Amino acid sequence: MLGLAGTTAAPFALNLAAMGNAAAQSADDYKAMVCLFMAGGNDAFNTVLATDNASWTEYLRLRNTGGSDSIHLPGVGETGGVLPVSPASAQAGRAFALHPQLGALKSLFDNGRAAIVANVGTLIGPTTLAQYKARSVALPPKLFSHNDQQSTWQSGAPEGASTGWGGRIGDVAGAGNANATFTAISAAGNTVFLSGRQVRQFQVGQAGAVPIRGLSGSLFGSTAGAGALHAIINEAGGDLIEQEHAAVVQRAITSQGILAGAMLPAGAGGVPNPTPYIHPVTGVAGVNPLAVQLQTVARIIAGRGALGVKRQVFYVTLGSFDTHDRQKVLHADLMARLAHALAYFDSTLAALQGVDLRRQVTTFTASDFGRTFSSNGDGTDHGWGAHHFIVGGAVKGRDIYGAFPVTGVGHALDVGSGALLPTTSVDQYGATLARWFGVADSQLAQVFPNIGNFSQRDLGFMTA
Fold first, then answer.
1. Which residues contact 50 (CB under 8 A, 6 or more apart)?
2. Helical axes 327-350 vs 103-110, angle rounded to 10°
3. 159-183: string of b/e by CB count within 10 Å (b at 16+)?
4. Phi–psi pair at 194, nearest 5 degrees
5. What distance in Å separates the CA atoms of residue 40 and residue 222, rounded to the nearest whole number?
6. What percent of the residues of the chain are helix, what percent strand, and what percent coil, each to the nearest 5?
7. In the chain, which end has fewer C-beta atoms inside a 10 angstrom radius, N or C?
8. CA–CA separation, 463 and 433 (whole Å)
9. Are 47 and 102 within 8 A, CB to CB?
10. Which of helix, strand or coil describes residue 364?
11. At a CB cut-off of 8 Å and minimum separation 6, what does 183 contact?
């Protein structure tokens, strides 16, 4: 983890001197973005549904196979049925609902702190179905590939990309941070999303910064061994590579100590622990790892003054969305975890250290891609466009942004088996968030190289 702790920040002595001033900043000076990545490709068709008569008839025709492996959901008003929502902006003749396990997210939507962006996906420029079929415009490479599309969503390029748009936003908007080390923080391991041109991601776990193993306590049962290791890895030597390695190690050790002193503890006296999560099928109570990741994010946000930061980008993840099989059961569990974690985070931010930070923190979902509308038996296959959620007090909530696509197959956005050709690009989605975060219009192309190909840069779902 040594390289991930590296930073181009000013020397730590200067950063520490600035922390006294940073601690006095008000909540209004601070903003954070949290990327919630649904790894594997979320089935958006069972997440946000059109329930007007024409749409629902086609939905049942294609997804209700009549057997135990059917992937359709019960309708509005049926036992365990989909949950109706009423967007502020009507889409002619359409009605909408959320997955039955998204009750807590429906409450956020109804209360104006959550919105939906329809049919978002990786695009290089506006693309029609005819252009897609003829390959007459540039298309994202390696469509439908998990690794490549995860990378393209997060960076704008397939697997092997070196920077992501979260990190590039940190490069620009985080320039005012007194300590750049804590600009981009992952609570879910290494991710290209948080790698900037200058900013380097900092990885944390439930216990805080990921430590260099063996430096504290004993090593192989010996405290002297730990001390010897500490001396060895801090030895600069005469070689330039050795000196740089020693500098990186020292920054990592120093950063770990700073974060440990700044984070609020979990539980009593700190950030409340998430309530138990109840599996919607088995009824068994347990820990929701996504909620724990968001608790860690809240604990770091609470230490923003001591860390000397005014802008932070975070990354959390929920996995297992590659539902080729047993989708109805697996997806219900994933939706329940998503709603549970987002509701917990919202309530936590509402009273973090006695301050309501919900207007300062925006959480948004992302995923490899959507899935096919047609079932492959008891699951779905890889798709393209998908619907996504934005949650926070600065969100212009209770609305759906973008034209909601026709339900079914064989329409003008169907690239095969009902997989959606996106009508909103990841660049537009991200640029809307970036402008709220403080990235100027003149700087957007530094973060999103393809944004100039789209006439609309701001989708309108964030307040100023």
1. 56, 59, 94, 95, 96, 404, 407
2. 50
3. bebebbbbbbbbbbbbeebbbbbbb
4. -95, 5
5. 43
6. 35, 15, 45
7. C
8. 10
9. yes
10. strand
11. 170, 174, 177, 196, 199, 309, 311, 312, 313
Which tokens go with 3? 């390289």
Counting beta carbons within 10 angstroms of the beta carbon of residue 385, is it exposed (0 to 12), middle (13 to 18) or buried (19 or more)?
buried
Hey, which residues does 185 pair with through a beta bridge? 202, 314
Q: In the beta sheet, which residues pair with residue 204?
A: 209
Residues 142, 335: Cα–Cα separation, whole Å: 28
Question: CA 183 from chain center: how many Å?
Answer: 15
Is 87 in contact with 400 (CB distance < 8 Å)? yes
**CB neighbours of residue 389 within 10 Å:** 24
pLDDT tens column, 146-165: 999 999 999 999 999 999 99
Tokens 């000196």 sit at which residue? 243
Residue of 138, 70, 137 lying closest to 326 (CA atoms): 70
C-alpha span between 181 and 201 (Å, rounded): 8
Per-residue tokens: 46: 């069972």
Share of the chain above pLDDT 70, in %: 88
Residue partners of 318: CB distance under 8 A and separation at least 6: 36, 37, 38, 39, 289, 290, 334, 337, 338, 341
Pick from 147, 218, 241, 162: nearest CA to 195? 162
Reading phi first (left if > 0) and then psi (alpha if -120 to 50, else beta), residue 219 is in: beta
**Helix or strand or coil: residue 4?**
helix
Take residue 108 and report the two structure tokens written for it. 């956020």
Q: Which pLDDT score is estimated for 1?
A: 36
Question: pLDDT, tens digit, for every residue of 19-66?
Answer: 333 333 344 689 999 999 999 999 999 999 999 999 999 999 999 987
Chain center to CA of 105: 16
pTM for this structure? Answer: 0.91
What pLDDT is recorded for position 219? 64
Write the pLDDT tens digit of every residue in 207-261: 887 766 656 666 666 777 767 766 666 666 677 777 666 666 777 777 888 998 9
Q: CA separation (Å) from 26 to 22, 41, 85, 169, 187?
A: 9, 38, 35, 22, 25
The amino acid present at 338, given as its one-letter code, is: L
